[in-house]
């Protein structure tokens, strides 16, 4: 335990993060612009949201396939007259309701005793400590991918911290905090001859059927052969059988993969950049809540705390 901290010390995972001065400037710009700073390195026609994946809590979390299309198109299930809790209500209740995933290592998952832990759980607990003075003043609301936004505007949760990427469509329904982590498409492989995505030209890459990763990989490795899989378990089986040289998906999810299967490693490359933010209710009456949450994220980023926690949980970090 670090002095004065309720969180364990970071382990030996390296922190090749953004320099503090640059980090502060970037996140100040996020607040001013109100938009994700790190746009995709893809041209506009190839900008995609990351895979929206719901993993069911099986003994092995990789046993089920993705839940694609987590957000309804506009006109479907758009909040009409929904009323979320205001800051004064939360203070009176003395408890922060936070929608989270409970099956997505290393962001948010249950340990052997059934307790929630992970990078996003650390963020939730520190947020409760700063807003209400008690890191345990939380009611966790486990949600599926489809419920991450509705949980907020239907007043089932005050905020959502559940691997949600800010997009233009989503921003019409809810507000977002500044990013607490930058996710992106990368690869996992057990082949030592593969060091970067350029080594995958003319090789075979497994991708989840129907995922946005397909277009990203096509753009960066046009000569590669893609093999569709319906689940992470199928991807593992194909890799083990030699039917593919690598598997492409989001870095945050694949970080959990390599923790579960240490024979595999992440390639040090991100083919896209997707900012993960806290989902907040839309409307002037929620400004106090939004301001408090956003100010905390910017401060933690400037202090290096978010980078430290990401490294502790084995998440790849942005580099200069």
Helix and strand layout, with pairings?
Blueprint: H1 20-33, H2 87-93, E1 96-100, E2 103-104, E3 108-110, E4 116-117, H3 119-132, E5 138-142, H4 150-153, E6 159-160, H5 168-171, E7 175-176, E8 181-183, E9 185-189, E10 204-208, H6 213-220, E11 225-229, H7 232-241, E12 246-250, H8 251-260, E13 265-266, E14 274-276, E15 279-280, H9 287-303, H10 305-312
Parallel strand pairs: 1-5, 1-6, 10-11, 10-12
Antiparallel strand pairs: 2-3, 3-4, 7-15, 8-14, 9-12, 9-13
Query: Which class of the largest domain in CATH terms?
Result: Alpha Beta
Q: Gap between N and C termini, in Å?
A: 29 Å
Give the low-pLDDT segments: 1-20, 26-78
Helical residues, percent = 25-40%
Computed CA radius of gyration, to the nearest angstrom: 19 Å
CATH topology of the largest domain: D-Maltodextrin-Binding Protein, domain 2
* Number of individual domains: 2
Spatial strand sequence of the major β-sheet: 11-10-12-9-13
Number of helices: 10
Question: How would you characterize the overall build of this protein?
Answer:
This protein has a five-stranded mixed sheet, sandwiched between helices. It has a three-stranded parallel sheet with strand order 5-1-6. The chain has a three-stranded antiparallel sheet with strand order 2-3-4. It folds into two domains: 20-33 and 70-183 and 276-312, D-Maltodextrin-Binding Protein, domain 2 (3-Layer(aba) Sandwich); 185-266, D-Maltodextrin-Binding Protein, domain 2. The chain starts with 19 loop residues before the first helix and ends in an 8-residue tail after the last helix. 30% of the residues lie in helices and 16% in strands. The model is unreliable at 1-20 and 26-78 (pLDDT under 50). 43% of the residues are buried. It has ten helices and 15 strands. With 320 residues, the chain is α/β, with parallel strands linked by helices. A hairpin with a 5-residue loop joins strand 3 (108-110) and strand 4 (116-117).
